[in-house]
Specification:
single chain; 2 domains; 455 residues; mainly alpha; 4 strands; 21 helices; two-stranded antiparallel sheet
Length: 455
């Protein structure tokens, strides 16, 4: 049945590989079920309802990805977009969370229209092949940095960021909480790398589980001491089964009256959601598809329309249930690295999101230091794409470099794409290579420039 539905032989994969890939993707992104309710609750929304909405919307979006595109990419509430929702639209602008949720709904509807009319597909195809490779590499750096942050290997410092200080943690008495998790993350990275070198199938999943188990042993022996006040919780599940919270506090809670009285303000909010989401999604699809060798000789993804439609439908469903913008997750690359090539991977991830509704005590216990090694190794694997860039062709490689560097150092996929496109157009114009620039690239460059001055 799975072979017929997902054309496994055609994609040179197996049911076991796809299921392991789906589980791996889920394990690296399950943190969203804890983080998203925490962020959106700052806007006044009910935290339990947000958890349920996030899990349901993620599952439905993953099923849409499988049904519309047969691709191994998972979706959930986008980080950054949820922060914009809670801290900017509600916190800084002073609008209600119902207004923000209405903006997410409108954004999703616009996305559906753009996806069906090929606008988003045209943007994807207009980006030059060199920049597409750069996006993949940039996402590798970006996701590696997320891994370092989640594990506290990299922390705030006098130079913006710096390495974690073991000496400082011993002096401050935090080594047995924070310090030991950093050690475990480093050990987990080495274990995952060793399993990769040995060609072990499911090496990322095994790396996550082994690191978690070592952490549990450390807690039982007293080397790791939970400190909930500072975000270091017990590594032992408090339970297995729980009932999901009601959706009623957030279900269909829209404020359409605001549109009529504050139309221009509403348009600005929607455009900000729209702009970040479209280029975060395109960037993630480019990066993951490139890693899986799914792009054709022209750098195009055949199933792009279905993938973008799944993203758009997920956003509309998420808004109706009560969560912020649903988008394709960069952590999907962990499942791709495990061999996931079809929609069966995204179905497996979606089923696990549904299971999380009833098994939240188990899934929410998975520590970030156990999933961080998978993200770090994925970063390494995606960096390998850098060899495909023609570095000697400076009019291509300089924009590619700026795209990669901005994505990692500005902590933004969409800003990386912005810098790449703007610099590509400007540099090639100055070099008299106008034939390399498509009309849509001119439009995108102008829009990106205006975005930085107007939003």
């Amino acid at each position: 049945m799975f072979q017929k539905l997902f054309r496994l032989n055609e994609h040179h994969t197996t049911v076991r590989t796809e299921l392991v890939a789906g589980l791996t993707t889920f394990m690296t992104m399950v943190y969203i079920l804890a983080v998203n309710p925490s962020i959106l609750a700052a806007s006044g929304m009910d935290q339990g309802a947000i958890f349920t909405a996030t899990a349901l919307a993620s599952a439905i979006a993953c099923f849409c990805m499988a049904g519309f595109a047969n691709l191994p990419f998972a979706l959930s509430a986008g980080m950054g977009l949820n922060a914009y929702f809670a801290y900017t639209v509600v916190g800084s602008y002073g609008y209600s969370w119902q207004v923000a949720l209405t903006a997410v709904l409108v954004e999703g509807i616009i996305f559906i229209i753009l996806s069906l009319t090929n606008v988003r597909e045209a943007i994807f195809n207009a980006i030059p092949k060199e920049l597409k490779v750069a996006v993949s590499v940039g996402i590798g750096l970006f996701i590696c940095f997320i891994g370092f942050q989640n594990a506290h290997i990299v922390v705030d410092g006098s130079t913006l960021v710096g390495l974690f200080s073991f000496k400082g943690s011993i002096t401050s008495g935090t080594f047995n909480s924070e310090g030991i998790t950093v050690v475990l993350a480093i050990v987990g990275t080495l274990i995952t790398a060793f399993l990769l070198l040995r060609g072990v199938k499911g090496y990322m999943l095994y790396g996550i589980l082994i690191t978690w188990i070592i952490g549990i042993v450390c807690q039982l022996l007293g080397f790791y001491v939970p400190d909930p006040a500072n975000g270091f919780y017990s590594l032992l599940p408090s339970g297995i089964v729980s009932m999901p919270a009601s959706l009623s506090p957030t279900l269909f809670k829209f404020d359409f009256a605001f549109i009529g009285s504050h139309l221009m303000d509403f348009i600005v909010i929607v455009f900000a959601f729209l702009f970040v989401d479209i280029f975060d999604t395109l960037g993630t699809l480019i990066g993951c598809a490139s890693k899986a060798n799914m792009l054709d000789e022209n750098g195009e993804l055949k199933e792009i329309k279905g993938a973008l439609l799944a993203d758009a439908v997920g956003t509309v469903v998420g808004a109706c249930l009560g969560t912020s913008t649903i988008t394709t997750f960069v952590e999907s690359s962990s499942g791709v690295s495990e061999g996931g090539r079809t929609g069966l991977t995204s179905v497996a991830t979606g089923v696990l999101f549904l299971a999380a509704l009833f098994l939240s005590p188990l899934f929410l216990t998975i520590p970030s230091f156990a999933t961080a090694p998978a993200l770090i190794i994925v970063g390494f694997l995606m960096m390998q794409q850098a060899g495909k860039i023609a570095w000697e062709e400076l009019s291509d490689s300089i924009p590619a470099f700026l795209c990669m560097a901005t994505m990692a150092f500005a902590y933004s996929i969409s800003d990386g794409i912005s810098m790449g496109i703007i610099s590509y157009v400007v540099i090639n114009l100055l070099c008299g290579k106008r034939e390399k620039i498509s009309p849509l690239m001119y439009v995108l460059a102008v829009l990106f420039i205006l975005k930085y001055f107007l939003i």
